[in-house]
Amino acid sequence: MENYVITIARNYGSDGCAIAERLAGQLNIRLLDKELLSLVSQETGISEEILEQADEKVKVSLWDAGRERRFDPEYDRVDPNNPLSERNLFRYQAAVLRRLAERESLVVVGRAADYVLQRHMRLFAVNIQAPFDDCVAGIMKRKFVDAKTAVKDVRTINREREAFYKAYTGRDWNDPLNYDLCINSAKFSQEDCVALIRKGAGLKFKCEL
After folding, report:
1. Which helix (H) or strand (E) holds 52?
2. Does residue 75 have a pLDDT over 60?
3. Of 10, 50, 36, which is closest to residue 157 (Cα–Cα)?
4. How many Cβ atoms are within 10 Å of 145's Cβ, its own excluded?
5. Domain 5-201, what fold?
6. CA–CA gap between residue 193 and residue 126 (Å, rounded)
7. Eight-class DSSP state of 176
8. Of 48, 139, 152, 170, which has the highest C-beta tally within 10 A?
9. What does the alpha-carbon distance between residue 135 and residue 186 come to, in Å, rounded to a whole number?
């Protein structure tokens, strides 16, 4: 079978990462989440701590992010005069991601991967969301934090991810038209979410996953 990529955009607290992990395990293909930072660090020599600071974040508001020049995965190149800029860190990450996608099948979590890999011949883009209250409850349970902290974290991290996506793609992170499949994870078990993704990707790729 030809290589394929399934990308998972997710609201914080929606169980998107856990679903992606289950999916990759069932398909027996590589999962790229935080590991991507390690791979970029190995290739560039930039510390994972520096990469982590810019991971799915930009130092602009959502309004300003919408006015940024969008990233072009084909033509955007590293600026040697400012190697540690946020945009350059994203360029490094995108280059590693594109190279890996040429070699093997992947499940990729976040990092605007649906946009970076948009020209990949076998790409299936998924957006996993859940109602705000469900996300808060999930974070309280997993992170052992109180409701006030969970509410703040869900709002902050989702704003960061939305601004990051807008800055580099020019797109609305929450627009369902940017994805092949959108799932409300509060309506399904993690296993059922995986089954929906496998079925949808199989239909698009015209094969059974």
Report:
1. helix 48-53
2. no
3. 10
4. 15
5. Rossmann fold (3.40.50)
6. 11
7. G
8. 139
9. 9
Q: Confidence band (pLDDT; 50, 70, 90) for 123?
A: very high
């990707």: which residue's tokens?
201
User: Burial letters for 58-80: b for 16+ Cβ neighbours within 10 Å, e otherwise?
Assistant: bebebeebeebeebebeebeeee
Sheet holding 30-32, edge to edge: 30-32, 106-109, 5-10, 123-129, 181-184
Residues 12, 176, 90, 23: is their CA dihedral positive or negative? positive
Query: Which tops the pLDDT comparison, 61 or 47?
Result: 47
- Is the pLDDT at 76 greater than 80, yes or no? no
Cα–Cα distance measured from residue 10 to residue 161, given in angstroms and rounded to the nearest whole number: 9
Q: Is 59 helix (H, G, I), strand (E, B) or coil?
A: coil
Listed in order, strand segments (DSSP E) in 84-161 are: 106-109, 123-129
Number of residues that make up the chain? 209
For 1-19, the pLDDT digits (tens) are 789 999 999 999 999 999 9
**Cβ atoms of residues 138 and 130 within 8 Å:** yes
Cα–Cα distance measured from residue 190 to residue 193, given in angstroms and rounded to the nearest whole number: 5
